[in-house]
Amino acid sequence: MSVNEYDVLVIGGGIAGMEAATALGDMGFSVVLVEKEPSIGGIMISLSKVFPTTDCASCISSPKVSTVAHHQNIKLLTYSEVLDVRKENGEFKARVKQKARFVHPEDCTGCLKCEQACPVMVPHEFNQGFVGRKAAYVPFDTAYPRSAVIDLNNCIFCGACERVCPTNAIDFLQKDEEEELSAKAVLITTGGKLFPMERKKEFGYKKISNVINGLQMERLLAPTRPFNTVLRPSDGKVPGKIGYVLCAGSRDASLGNPYCSRICCMYSIKQAILLMGALPLVDVTIHYMDIRAFGKGYEEFYRQAVDMGVQFVRGRVADLNELENGDVLMKSENTDTGKIVEEKYDLVVLAAGILPETHNRTATEALGYATDSIGFIKPRADTIGATEVSEGVFAAGLGTGPKDIVDTIAEADAAASSCASYMKENFGKERAEKILRELM
Amino acid sequence: MPTENPRILVFAGSMAYLGADNAGLLHKEYPSNSFVVKVPCTTMLRPGLILYALRHGFDGVFVASSGPDCPYLPDCVERTAKRVESAYDLLKKNGIEPERIQLAGICSVCSDAFANNVKQLHSRLKKLEPMRRDGLLVSQ
């Protein structure tokens, strides 16, 4: 095992991790960015548009990807996981597992010949399972590094990919490798995930085929979307009537999620506006508890949706049932009229809330930060700056609490600047001496 | 005599440059004999520069405008179009085929569009005579 020394270890290559890593790299710190997926980009790169400007999300995040890719101070480790971290003499020693891709990324040209040759078809995670992918695949169009990866759990070892590869990049003998690296500070941007809606039995998610979650609708609306239009999953019909269920999996004590996920109102409004554009004849009804349009320009965005003809109905949805033709019968309350309403929809979208990504226990203990009952990282009790979670450990992004992209980027920059001041305070003299030595 | 491997100069606006960068990052296939120059915004690209490029070693010029995504000007498309229009006139006046100019709006993820535009211009230039290079040797 070789020991590599860096200034900062950034865990997670989503938008927060990329932003923090470039900020620190620009300040001259050497950064190692560890991402567990085969490509960096996180959730943002899969989204359709961002609110309230309706700018294309991948157009904003992919320049960030290329900045990280080219940055001379950033070492990128994709398809890698931090196994454990320990603290020695004020520095962190991390064991990182480089998972076997079974493809040498430096040889792979991303020509997709292996993908065409592979006979195995499994649901495509990036497209939320709407379409299939092969067992040998490039994660998505704008993935970086542009290299295929072989999913060994689904591979049938036919060797077709190995035979067609023009650069002999495929190597089935590759093994997971462990690497030890040391860093002076750690920045955690592990991010979050959508609330698993199957836990709310009444909504029948995964049982009723035309009930989808917000991220699935995001993919149906994205510029790189699978069907090039919005189709409902059961029979491929273009939906004429779409219902939204807000606060699905958040502000719901029965599911143990009493908090507001902050972004669901806004992303539902954004999707409603995009749907009006994509399908001019569609009726969109949003069933809400409260519309929390909290940011700059958000209330105006909500008004714009109202003016465009999006229906807003106040009241909780009680349950969803599948009808014979695939339509969904929604039973809900309208608190303005005080009546129980039953309505048929072609497609129902659950605006699911946010949960933090689960943390590696051993790493959490060694880094010495605490998480709350949900799993969000708690800030240190004795500091005002919310991004420092323990001595030399910083956190940003969805891992510290639900937030939108604007706030995530702001928090990532805040964490990077706190991290930089920590570095200067504790290692500034050492660093200055090193620079001086280099100049001599 | 058709041109064997035409040399292409790309003037890329700040957003289009990211698209070109992306094309490289994603291993897109496009003619290797193309050179990208980053300009802040294509609205300030003087037509004389295009003529200069064509006279000094390039067979074609691709003006990759940032399009409606331009961070500087909301009417970037119209202004760039005006510039290119006068460049057409300038080329005609100097006896150079105006087909040597390609104009397109490239966004920061338009890596496919970038590669396709370069390919398109490349195949069009192949059919034309090679440019006479005043003061420069023809080197391929």
Could you characterize the architecture of this molecule?
- The complex is a heterodimer of chains A (440) and B (140).
- With 440 residues, chain A is an alpha/beta fold.
- Chain A has helices spanning 15-26, 57-70, 113-117, 160-164, 214-221, 264-278, 298-308, 361-367, 405-439; strands spanning 3-11, 31-34, 49-50, 55-56, 74-77, 80-88, 91-98, 121-123, 132-134, 136-137, 149-150, 177-188, 192-194, 211-213, 241-248, 283-288, 311-314, 317-322, 328-334, 339-345, 347-352, 354-356, 388-390, 393-395.
- Chain A has three domains: 3-97 and 176-191 and 357-439, FAD/NAD(P)-binding domain; 100-172, Alpha-Beta Plaits, CATH 3.30.70; 195-354, FAD/NAD(P)-binding domain (3-Layer(bba) Sandwich), CATH 3.50.50.
- Chain A is 25% helix and 27% strand.
- In chain A, α5 (214-221) runs parallel beside α6 (264-278).
- The relative contact order of chain A is 0.15.
- In chain B, α1 (14-25) crosses α4 and α2 crosses α3 (76-93).
- The longest helix of chain B is centred in the middle third of the chain and has 18 residues, at 76-93.
- Chain B has one domain: Rossmann fold, CATH 3.40.50.960.
- By secondary structure, chain B is α/β, with parallel strands linked by helices.
- Chain B has helices at residues 14-25, 47-55, 76-93, 111-127; strands spanning 8-12, 34-38, 60-65, 101-105.
Q: How many strands, which pairing sense, and closed or not: the largest β-sheet of chain A?
A: 8 strands, mixed
What is the number of beta strands of chain A?
24
Protein structure class of chain B: alpha/beta
CATH architecture of chain B: 3-Layer(aba) Sandwich
CATH topology of chain B: Rossmann fold
* Beginning-to-end CA distance, first to last residue of chain B: 15 Å
Shape of chain B: globular
Mean pLDDT of chain B: 88
Uncertain segments of chain A: none
Secondary-structure class of chain A: alpha/beta
